[in-house]
What does this fold into?
Amino acid sequence: MKTIKCVGGIAASVVITLWSSSVNAQVDPLSDTLFETILGNGATINSPQTYQIFESQETGQPILFTVPALTVDFFENSTSQQRSDRFHFDAYNVTITSDAESPLAPRPGAILANEAFQIMSIRAISDGEDPFGNLSDILSISFFGGFVTNFFLPEPPDPGPGEFVFYSTPAMSFDVVEPGTGVSDYVDIGPINISLISSDNPFDYNTNDVVNASIDESAPSPELDYALNFESDTDVPEPSALALLLVGAGGLFVRQWKKRTA
It folds into this structure.
């Protein structure tokens, strides 16, 4: 009996230690995450940003995040000093409002979204020298997996004036719906000023732009792929639930030990 009591004490001690660690880790659990992905030539470029909201920040008041500007230059090859294209967007704002205790009220006109979704994606493609002389670049902008806007830049005469796209996205609002509960978050974005310039004339480019990365048109995947994503309510066991689970495991361990020593 003394051995069994000792083992039970050890199991209880393990439960208490693990529960204490869980409580410490869950003092302020992660609630929502807003994050970028930025790919050039198929690999991550620049420094994609991640923004987090913790449960203590869920007050029902909007939290403003400013996503920094992005500028990417395209070159004909890895050694070329001749820039052929530039993609750019200005810094833009995203506002996230998370429920405190009760669900948020649905908003008329807002787009209903799941707890994990892609807010926006942008693709800029440069084919370098089009052998047919017809197409130079493609800019594709998509919101929520739809609402796609495409721009096609024809190959300009050489020498000749460059081709330009300047586009401002509409502001958009999303209501994030938690199944069986209601609206857990508001996500509001934009507008965003986006440009794509295709020119051999260096004076066509804004000298105030801070270039963040470059893309080699002669390498595989000569394109820029940008996305902004949102995830809500990462599933992490609450401390009380985890404690009950560990207590049950401790009891099972003691019972199994009793069977072996019977």
User: Anything to note?
Assistant: Confidence is low (pLDDT under 50) at residues 1-8, 10-24, 235-261. The chain has one domain: 29-261. The CA atoms of residues 31 and 235 lie 9 Å apart.
